[in-house]
Design brief:
single chain, alpha/beta, seven-stranded mixed β-sheet, six-stranded mixed β-sheet, disordered N terminus
Length: 331
């Protein structure tokens, strides 16, 4: 599958032009851990909303920062809320946003069945929807006009190719969220191109990294043929897979999806072979821009296809540049 030709360059250029016309402030917090922003400029009457399954960790803080920057650049009122991987809570956030006057809604969709009824309430009121991060295969079914993110199957396929290049023989693929179809697709993609991939469902995931490390370590001890780990999250890689490998005293090829400052440092130190960067700052930023353009000019960009922000690879070759950006919170 090839990424659509349309998209990121055009949207980014449009956003830069718009950014020159307005600026604002992204202050303000809500009781559920999200944030709202009423920026200065002529667009403060436009209310755009983003409701994700985010957990406030290293990945989602960057996506949130991108969305807030877009709201500031465009001068719109913006509401961001996270459900901490609680699909029912995410559905409730969407329903509340519809009631509260959102004029465009961006959502992540790791569990589309859980939020489809809430999104139906938005489409019934002709509120435009963009899915972001997860949901590339189901965005049309959810009523969205496009999806911003990476194709998770393709990301996994590219990871599988990378492990082949590294000479690995068996890859362990720990899954940190039980109901996230995108994570399963990453493991499936790796299996398609690599072959010998075994999944491991982590019981606590990101909520208890020490427990996740212990579970990965136990699997490595039980199966000495495993010589590589495909972590699906940077925190799982740096706080789970790397210390687990060190504890069992084996040198493993470890790759991850997504970035953090610790992950980039680990790449520079040779503890991580690679990270797949889906560029979540752009996911947040572009989702807001797409909703804004739909509101002011009726655009439905994407041509009915997803707009891909990844996968891209971070290795030792480009780690220095990416580290500076990660430390600034934009990668």
């Amino acid at each position: 599958m090839k990424a659509p030709k349309l998209g990121l360059a055009v949207v980014a250029a449009t956003a830069l032009l718009l950014a020159g016309c307005s600026a604002g402030d992204t202050s303000g917090n809500t009781s559920s851990g999200g944030s709202s922003a009423a920026a200065g400029g002529d667009n403060k009457g436009i209310k755009l909303c983003m409701y994700t399954h985010g957990d406030g960790g290293g990945f989602w803080s960057v996506a949130k920062k991108g969305a807030q920057k877009a709201a500031e650049d465009l001068g719109v009122t913006f509401d961001y809320q996270e459900s901490n991987n609680d699909a029912e809570a995410q559905a409730q956030l969407i329903e509340a946003g519809v009631t509260a006057g959102c004029q465009g809604i961006a959502v992540s969709a790791p569990n589309p069945d859980a939020i489809k009824d809430a999104l139906k309430g938005a489409t019934d009121k002709k509120i435009p929807i963009v899915t972001m991060n997860s949901g590339s295969a189901v965005f049309k079914e959810l009523g969205a006009f496009t999806h911003v993110g990476q194709d998770e199957l393709i990301a996994g396929q590219e990871a599988g190719k990378k492990f082949k290049e590294l000479g690995a023989k068996k890859v362990l693929c720990p899954i940190q969220e039980a109901n996230n179809i995108g994570l399963q697709q990453r493991c499936d993609g790796a299996k398609e191109t690599f072959g010998n991939v075994e999944n491991l469902q982590l019981s606590a995931g990101l909520a208890d990294l020490a427990k996740s490390q212990a579970e990965i370590q136990a699997k490595l001890e039980a199966d000495p043929s495993i010589d590589a780990v495909f972590a699906l999250n940077a925190d799982i890689a740096t706080a789970g897979a790397i210390p687990a490998a060190e504890a069992v005293g084996r040198t493993l090829q470890i790759g991850t999806v997504d970035l953090s400052g610790d992950a980039v440092t680990a790449i520079k130190d040779g503890k991580l072979a690679f990270a797949i960067d889906q560029q979540q700052y752009a996911q947040g930023y572009l989702s807001v821009v797409l909703l804004y353009l739909n509101k002011i000019n009726g655009h439905e960009l994407g041509g009915g296809q997803p707009m891909y922000t990844g996968p891209g690879f971070v290795t030792k070759d480009n780690a220095d540049l990416v580290q500076k950006l990660a430390e600034a919170g934009t990668r």
